[in-house]
Amino acid sequence: xxxxxxxxxxxxxxxxSSYVIFNKSLILLAPFLLLLAIDAHADKTKQMNPASSVTPxxxxxxTKARQVTLPVKIFANGxxxxxxxxxxxxxxxxxxxxxxxxxxxxxxKKGELLADFSAESIIAExxxxxxxxxxxEAQGKEAINNADRAxxxxxxxxxxxxxxxxxxxxxxxxxxxxxxxxxxxxxQQIRLNNTKIFxxxxxxxxxxxxxxxxxxxxxxxxxxxxxxxxLEWRAEVISADVTKIKVGTVAVITAADGSSFKGKVRKISPxxxxxxxxxxxxxxxxxxxxxxxxxFAKGEFIMGQSSTLAxxxxxxxxxxxxxxxxxxxxxxxxxxAKQIKVKTGRRMGNLVEIISGITLKQLLVATGGAFLSDNDxxxxxxxxxxxxxxxxANNAKK
Length: 398
Known about the structure:
single chain, alpha+beta, conserved putative lor/sdh protein from methanococcus maripaludis s2 fold, Elongation Factor Tu (Ef-tu), domain 3, six-stranded antiparallel beta barrel, four-stranded antiparallel β-sheet
């Protein structure tokens, strides 16, 4: 009886111990089984969406093109020159310069004395001409009186007709000698006047070759004068743009010293240069400009305004001589950067005109496009909205 009870108890205890050990093993293996399940789920997710594990190439801000109004311009280069330059020369021959009163850069008025010559010899010849005139007038008076008396005796027979004609001819000759003496006197007076050099117009002395003590001949250049101190810009414009420019068109000129000023078209050359195929456009410059004759200058002819698309300069990428932008669009939950070639045009400040390639609605990478390649995945942090109203571009030089 006791033996039977001991066997039953042993049989009952053994299965219970195995159950406890099995449960403890399950508790120990549970974390490992959970990790295996998580890994299996991750593998399945990767197979369904392979791109989800790709790291974005760049974090970007997006922007859009904006509608702006930009000025329409024609660009040109050219030289600044005097509107008209007067050459002031000597009309006296063989006289010595005794005084030079102006120098290069002096502003003079019309009729102002610039230089004078020694006039002693001219004065002596003038006095001689005056004396000759007095002699001719005295002799002429006597000859005229003799002729008048001879005519009173025409019908008396006291003098023959031949004698009367001789008196009349002598009187006419005396009158002619008086006129010759007057002309000689006038010529000497002109020579005396020519010993003084006066400014033919108001303006600025641009050149001086007159030297005190020099003996000059007729026609020798003494000074050059920029008339009215007026300058002009002689712009060289290609033939295709000449017909677009009219008299009165405003031009903004930038001189070599960096100064900028406005002018107006005064005249358009009727011919085209055979070598350059350019046409000269003459633009009057304001009197207060700092430009100097002979300077090189570049400029723009303002032709009006037009509405167009524009982007900030930093949104553009230059590659292989072309201009690109990066458009961002969603693809299977990812933001993909697509490279688009665009054609650019005018510039104003930081804005660049986009002639073709994009639209107003497209989202574009605002900065950092140079670090992207086509089809790169990006992370978008914000979208910069274009201003509701962009101020119109003015005509001033940017």
